[in-house]
Amino acid sequence: MHLRAVVALAGLAALSVPLLADVSFTTPQYTVPTENAWDYYVAAFALLPPKGEVWDRAQPFGEQPSIAGVEALLREGGPALAKLREGLGKPCVPLYAEVGSSAAGGHAALGPARSMAKLLAWEAWLAAQRGDNEGAFASCLDGMILGQDIARNGGVLAKLVSIACEGIACSSIRRAMASAAGDQAALARFVSGLQDVESRGVPYADSLAHEYGTQVTYLRWLRGSGAMTREQFRQRFGTRAIGAATILARRELDGRYSEAVALAERPTWEWTWTRPSQAERDAALDGLTRAVRLFPRAPQSATPSPRQQEGYNRQLVRARREAMKVFLPEDQTLAELLSLPLGHDQTVVRHLADVRGTLLVAALELHRARTGEYPAALANLVPAILTSVPLDPWSGEPFRYARTTATEYKLYSVGADKVDDGGVGRGIGAYTFSLNGDVLFSPGPLPDPGKG
What we know:
Shape: globular
Oligomer: single chain
Mean pLDDT: 79
Structural class: mainly alpha
Strand order of the largest sheet: 3-4-5
Largest sheet: 3 strands, antiparallel
Radius of gyration: 25 Å
Order of helices and strands: HHHHHHHHHHHHHHHEEEEE
Strand content: under 5%
């Protein structure tokens, strides 16, 4: 080997010694309890009704939910719900296989979690239909707890699954609040429970720290396992220098995740790494959309000819290739490939705003149930209903609130653009979200669980 190359590789090897010193955060470590709620959850997931007819009967396509269909679904899912509730409330430390197959790790048990959240949502829906407000709220809180537990001891993928489960629960909460208007006892117990659950949510900074640990473990495995030949490594990551590439990737990951964790711990988040411009992303997605719409143009009953199918496939592959150049440019480093989950920060902030906004809506409904009117200011909810007023995570300031009449109000977050538009948001529903508008919150009907 050329002397200069030897010296360069020696220098890279030397970098591996002080790497941990560059990381300005620690990954939370959870002690696995003797009786772990996660074991009950995994057993409950295995008992879920299989996707298909029993789920479809709850809400036939294009129709309103069927009480008989939901009852049938809940009978089929009864054993799964019972097993889940054996674990709810116990200490939970999910156990994820994180080394070997990919940087994201194996999370096989995460797939059914969303189905379990939907089952709880249908349970809440049926309870609300029967006037059982306590039961509806209890099912909603169970969905929130399930989501939070999934995010423990896991990286960004676990956090996103957690958000999906909690998002389904938030939709159920708002629907249940519309049914429970004036029910002081049910609302009081629910606000107390939701406030407690919200206070114990897994911070995104912890999820990022876990993600960093997962990626570093994967890099160690990649260097030492011999699972990839140099040529296979080149095909996947663009270079044959396995040792040098992984050492440099580790150095870059240290910096990226130190910055990300520090940002996530602030009251508001300002993400600074370079991404494709919105125009580039829109153009790439438009290309994919056009390709997908090219076929089928004939009635659904028509069978495409092999030539038509081949032409369609070529268009789709070409559009996908162009899109990947934008989202995964060829000169991307190994660290950038492993850091792709960091693009989900807006999803996390939006969800946090949803949870806090939902808590405020519940507190406002309880105040009205007790006094006959909404408060003049959110501060009036403390301390009788809330221990403190939650902040809008987009701005780090209180949610915007104005009582328009004794029985009407406007409550909103400034949203992703961080601009107060006076409560003007695009879309319909309490959890309206857009890049250029406010996020509005109020009690009222939402899509049924089958559409969540």
